[in-house]
Design goal:
The protein has 16 helices and 20 strands. The longest helix is centred in the first third of the chain and has 23 residues. It is globular and about 65 Å long.
């Protein structure tokens, strides 16, 4: 049957949807408002440093983003996070713990034995939370439901449960403040009261497959944006950059095209890959039921600073910093801090052994205060906070880049997943030819979530065109990785990335 497809937005979801459709010979055009592709995954070079806009890592326990890395010929650019040295700020001290080679572990033995970044009480409480999650997953599986992280159905009973309430009920305040809150800050910049427990459950489900078999967390040698830049480059003629869509046109219950730059572009199908708020803004005839579902999506905002210098002012092999919520500082200004220079020689002009490229992301809980400041005042505040961690950070840095991201990533807020389930189950066909894709539609907001939902949308377009669909494009399945049954879920005691879980692994595979 064929037909014309327009994709709105050239972020991770838009590029992947375009890439998939082009591989099937579909006539597709992707409109992007900015002058650059890749959206929140964009990486760019400035003064010899590789700057990354938003997403900073790759989780290989997922399916489609790792496959895309192979498909665009970048397998050699992926580096597994086999060596990591993680910091926990507690009692005005940077407490480090690391995972690495035997020689590295031996050299870090003293600091490991003296580690005081997480109270023992917090670890005990975290074990209780992990056991509770493991029990919940077993009960879900006993009901005959698939337990995988791409499934709305399995996790739907927890879609309104706040992370902080769940952790306080099954563990305690120390586990919340020192483990779960900092970890969610790292993953989605989220504050526990504003995030749903389902995101953490997704990570638990995938942990066994990801951490033990496929390597878990890693990064691209030239930034995660290099994946989508490569996919974009394979079909560059299909893109219209600096061409914002003003309206997705719906008439008589069907998409007819889009308006952009004063022109009308007809289409049989439109895949909207913008943020949820933008969907509603540019689709005035959007059915109320879909608009109501999208209104449940909330985003974290952040000021993303990148500090680069030829001087190495972070500890050797330093990967990232966790910030606990303490009585002295219940809402830390900084939520994420990591040194990208440790990843590969490409990130700085001086290589990983010498230079520093520090990413510092602020908490959205301080947005009003930060927005009221001048750029100079804000920069001084963030640098002063950062210098508490790294006193040797120079005053006159070679690179000082700041990006404000008003919708950095979906918070996976309580109520959001039930709303997205309602859309996927009841309203997919409310407007013929209208499709959505984006990380907010997935139970765990991430670049992979964007890819999964883009694949679903592209698959539906192909099926409605009378062409062979893509494997695993049903709303409830999305081609999960080999299913990890609940009894096989190895859950970490607190935070997997810190390596603390290695010695206290719970929920081990039971026979």
């Amino acid at each position: 049957m064929g037909g014309k497809v327009i994709v709105v937005g050239a972020g991770a979801a838009g590029i992947y949807a375009t890439w998939l459709l082009r591989r099937q010979g579909v006539d597709v055009t992707c409109f992007e408002a900015s002058p650059y592709p890749c959206g929140r995954t964009r990486a760019y070079e400035k003064d010899g440093y590789i700057c990354e806009t938003g997403a900073l890592g790759v989780e290989t326990q997922w399916d489609f983003e790792p496959q895309l890395i192979k498909d665009v010929g970048l397998s050699g650019e992926y580096a597994a996070g086999t060596t990591m040295r993680v910091g926990f700020w507690r009692k005005n001290r940077l407490n480090l713990v690391g995972i690495g080679t035997a020689a590295q572990q031996l050299s870090w033995l003293r600091e490991t034995l003296g580690f005081r970044g997480i109270p023992l009480k917090a670890i005990r409480q975290a074990i209780k939370v992990a056991l509770a999650i493991n029990k919940e997953l077993k009960q879900i599986e006993a009901q005959g439901k698939d337990v995988h992280a791409n499934s709305f159905e399995a996790l739907l009973p927890f879609g309104d449960v706040r992370l902080d309430e769940y952790v306080l009920e099954h563990g305690g305040k120390e586990a919340l403040d020192y483990i779960f809150q900092p970890f969610m800050s790292l993953m989605i910049l989220g504050s526990a009261p504003d995030t749903c427990v389902t995101h953490m459950m997704c990570l638990f489900i995938n942990n066994s497959q990801g951490m033990s078999e496929s390597g878990g967390f890693g990064w691209m040698k030239r930034g995660i944006g290099s994946i989508y830049e490569a996919a974009y480059g394979m079909d560059e003629e299909c893109y219209r950059l600096s061409c914002p869509v003003d309206e997705i046109v719906i008439e008589d219950g069907a998409v007819t095209g889009v308006r952009a730059g004063g022109e009308f572009f007809p289409a049989d199908h439109v895949i909207c890959c913008t943020t949820a708020s933008k969907v509603a803004q540019i689709t005035p005839e959007l059915p109320q039921a879909i608009a109501d579902d999208l209104a449940c999506v909330r985003y974290a905002s952040t000021y993303h600073y990148m500090f680069g210098d030829r001087k190495k002012f972070t500890p050797d092999e330093f990967t990232m910093e966790f910030f606990a919520s303490t009585p002295e500082d219940p809402k830390p200004l900084i939520r994420v801090c990591l040194d990208a220079a440790q990843r590969s020689d490409a990130y700085t002009p001086y290589g990983r052994e010498k230079g520093t490229l520090l990413h510092v992301l602020t908490s959205y809980e301080h947005e009003e205060r930060l927005m009221a400041m001048s750029d100079e005042e804000r920069l001084k505040l963030v640098m002063d906070e950062t210098r508490k961690l790294f006193p040797d950070m120079p005053e006159d840095l070679e690179l000082c880049e700041c990006l404000y991201l008003p919708e950095a990533i979906s918070l996976d807020a309580p109520g959001q997943m039930p709303a997205m389930h309602d859309y996927e189950t009841n309203h997919l066909d409310d407007v013929r030819g209208f499709h959505l894709a984006g990380e907010y539609l997935h139970p765990a907001a991430s670049a992979e979530g964007a890819c999964i939902t883009a694949r679903r949308a592209a698959g539906r377009v192909l099926e409605q065109m009378g062409m062979p669909g893509l494997p695993g494009c049903k709303a409830e399945s999305a081609a999960p990785a080999p299913k990890a049954s609940a009894k096989d879920v190895a859950v970490p005691a607190g935070t997997a990335v810190a390596g603390f879980a290695a010695g206290v692994a719970i929920g081990r595979r039971t026979k």
